[in-house]
């Protein structure tokens, strides 16, 4: 696969303005990235700019904490798809996972996956807050729920993607879901390490710096 197509070119900062979003889309077109990844407010803007281009629009749901109701996540996802989103990155209910309430976690994911039928859902674990056992359990729940990808991080918590976590996710998933690594991936070498560990997609705010 072409190197640029690993990358979701990302801008999720609260202070992003329309000119910043337009620049993100222009860069995505120039470098032929897989997607832009933006907050849902900007989905319609991106969909219009990228219309008929081979660059998709990805947005986030339940971001960045994952601690809102399942109904709210499903509604947010539905609205984003209506506005033109191609892929949805949702945050898992981290507290319920850590409490061992796996059925609640699974139901939360399934509701968004079902809402997004025909669109890839990536489930963000926030691995920096989880133990190895919790990462393994979360991966199993994502696979059972029909998620397309499991994603390491929001980029807004205590740490981003770690190579050892990507390796663990790869071994646990065994091809049932793809893996997106995100958070703190700033150089081509960082990207190489994540791909070697098992990442199929890279989320990064400095996508051009990851290209050789």
Question: What would you note in describing this structure?
Answer:
- With 212 residues, the chain is α/β, with parallel strands linked by helices.
- It has a single domain (57-206), classed as Alpha-Beta Barrel (TIM Barrel).
- The chain is 42% helix and 17% strand.
- It is built from 8 helices and 8 strands.
- It has helices spanning 18-31, 43-49, 70-83, 94-98, 102-115, 132-145, 163-173, 188-197; strands spanning 7-11, 35-38, 56-61, 87-91, 120-124, 149-151, 178-182, 201-204.
- An 8-stranded parallel barrel has the order 1-2-3-4-5-6-7-8, surrounded by 7 helices.
- β5, α6 (132-145) and β6 (149-151) form a beta-alpha-beta unit.
- α5 (102-115) crosses α6.
- The longest helix is centred in the N-terminal third of the chain and has 14 residues, at 18-31.
- The relative contact order is 0.14.
- The model has no long low-confidence stretch (mean pLDDT 98).
What structural category characterises the helix and strand content?
alpha/beta
Number of helices: 8
The whole-number mean of residue pLDDT values reads 98
CATH architecture: Alpha-Beta Barrel
Distance between termini? 14 Å
Annotated CATH homologous superfamily: Aldolase class I
Residue fraction in strands: 15-25%
Question: Into which percent range does the helicity of residues fall?
Answer: 40-55%
Shape: globular
Tell me the CATH topology. TIM Barrel
Q: Report the biggest beta sheet as strand number plus sense, adding barrel if it closes.
A: 8 strands, parallel, barrel
Low-confidence stretches: none
CATH class: Alpha Beta
Rg (C-alpha, Å): 16 Å
């Amino acid at each position: 696969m072409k190197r640029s197509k690993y990358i979701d070119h990302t801008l999720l900062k609260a202070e992003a303005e329309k000119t910043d979003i337009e620049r993100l889309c222009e860069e995505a077109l120039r470098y032929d990235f897989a997607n832009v990844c933006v907050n849902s407010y900007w989905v319609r803007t991106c969909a219009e700019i990228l219309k008929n281009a081979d660059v998709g629009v990805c947005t986030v749901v339940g971001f960045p904490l994952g601690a809102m109701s399942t109904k709210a996540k499903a509604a947010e996802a539905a609205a984003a798809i209506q506005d033109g989103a191609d892929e949805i990155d949702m945050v898992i209910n981290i507290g319920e996972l850590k409490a061992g309430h796996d059925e609640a976690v699974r139901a939360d994911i399934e509701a968004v996956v079902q809402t997004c039928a025909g669109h890839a859902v990536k489930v963000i674990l926030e691995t920096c807050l989880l133990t190895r056992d919790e990462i393994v359990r979360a991966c199993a729940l994502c696979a059972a729920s029909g998620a397309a990808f499991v994603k390491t991080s929001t980029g807004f918590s205590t740490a981003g993607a770690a190579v050892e976590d990507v390796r663990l996710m790869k071994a646990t998933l065994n091809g049932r879901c793809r893996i997106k690594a995100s958070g703190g991936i700033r150089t081509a070498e960082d990207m190489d390490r994540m791909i070697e560990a098992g990442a199929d997609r890279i989320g990064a705010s400095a996508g051009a710096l990851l290209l050789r």
